């Protein structure tokens, strides 16, 4: 799935000739893949090791907040804040993965089962399609207002 996300991002950069904000938004979409690191957050919670998960999230939040304050102070553009948000997601995921690798029992290592992975991907296709359909359904009114009346009215809406 990660590989497909990277290919889609590369295609978008080449096809749409994105500017810096477009590239930043594309990075943000791609960085949301790292939200899969929250699996380790669930593992830590199930083993009553919440203090580590809180430390990871809080550390990333403090660093990202400092970067955001710097961005406001230095009057940086929207692309700075987009990159900071993506970096925060990446940092949380990396910290949670590191904590998992140090806290896990060596007998319970991660085992990748290709057969089960293929089964889950096949059974999850309809969930992915319904998620995309729900996003379109929730945003189509804004797109219609933008095309008919303009961006200012979308902002008012």
Commentary on this structure:
The chain is mainly alpha-helical and 157 residues long. Helix content is 80%, strand content 0%. It contains 8 helices and no strands. α1 runs antiparallel to α2 and α3 packs across α5. The two termini are 35 Å apart.
What is the gist of this entry?
The chain has eight helices and no strands. By secondary structure, the chain is an all-alpha fold. Helix 1 runs antiparallel to helix 2, helix 2 runs parallel beside helix 5 and helix 4 packs antiparallel against helix 5.
Principal-axes shape call: globular
Average of the residue pLDDT scores: 79
Give me the count of strands: 0
Strand content: under 5%
Series of H and E elements: HHHHHHHH
Oligomer: single chain
Could you list the spans in which at least 5 consecutive residues all have pLDDT below 50? none
Distance between the termini: 35 Å
Provide the structure class: mainly alpha
Radius of gyration: 19 Å
Largest sheet: none
Number of helices: 8
Task: Tell me the helix content.
Answer: over 70%
SSE blueprint and pairings:
Layout: H1 2-16, H2 20-31, H3 38-46, H4 50-73, H5 78-103, H6 114-123, H7 125-148, H8 151-156
Helix pairs in contact: 1-2, 2-5, 3-5, 4-5
Features:
mainly alpha, globular, 157 residues
């Amino acid at each position: 799935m990660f590989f497909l996300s990277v290919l889609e991002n590369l295609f978008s950069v080449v096809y749409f000739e994105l500017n810096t904000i477009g590239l930043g938004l594309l990075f943000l979409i791609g960085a949301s893949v790292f939200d899969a690191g929250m699996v380790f957050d669930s593992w830590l919670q199930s083993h009553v090791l919440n203090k580590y998960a809180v430390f990871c999230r809080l550390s990333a939040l403090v660093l990202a907040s400092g970067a955001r304050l710097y961005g406001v102070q230095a009057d940086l553009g929207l692309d700075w804040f987009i990159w900071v948000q993506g970096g925060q997601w990446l940092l949380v995921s990396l910290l949670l993965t590191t904590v998992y690798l140090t806290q896990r029992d060596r007998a319970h290592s991660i085992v990748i089962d290709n057969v089960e992975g293929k089964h889950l991907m096949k059974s999850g296709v309809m969930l992915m399609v319904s998620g995309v359909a729900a996003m379109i359904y929730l945003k189509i009114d804004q797109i219609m207002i933008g095309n008919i009346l303009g961006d200012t009215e979308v902002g008012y809406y």
